[in-house]
Write a structure and sequence with these properties.
The protein is mostly beta strands. The chain is about 0% helix and about 40% strand. The protein has no helices and ten strands. Strands 1-6 form a two-stranded antiparallel ribbon. The two termini are about 20 Å apart. The mean pLDDT is about 75.
């Protein structure tokens, strides 16, 4: 299978200069952030803003998108690979103590 991707956008935006620790909520999937001359951030209805593309491939076949709580920066999180298959089979009734190796994936 080929790689695929999905965009995730930032949800907060920070100022500059003396206002570099000032963050405002701004959904950059539909708006654009700019910085005023004072360094204060502003959210405007101009176009889409900053985001990140999450890509799946053979190594990273799952992901979810999240936004950092303080900065709102969009990021892709790739969880470790896992499977939910048993690696053994156990008998029933009088054979309930019988366990055989059995990769059920």
């Amino acid at each position: 299978a080929g790689a695929s991707s999905q965009s995730t956008f930032f949800l907060k935006y920070g100022g500059t200069g003396e206002k570099n620790f000032t963050f405002i909520d701004c959904d950059l999937s539909v708006k654009l952030c700019q910085v005023k001359a004072t360094g204060y951030p502003q959210c405007v209805d101009l176009s889409r803003g900053a985001g990140v593309n999450c890509t799946v491939d053979a190594t990273n076949d799952e992901y979810y998108c999240q936004n950092a709580l303080t900065s709102g920066v969009a990021e892709c999180i790739y969880p470790p690979k896992h499977n939910c298959y048993d690696s053994s089979c156990t008998g029933k009734h009088t054979y309930n103590t019988t366990v055989n190796d059995c990769d059920q994936s």
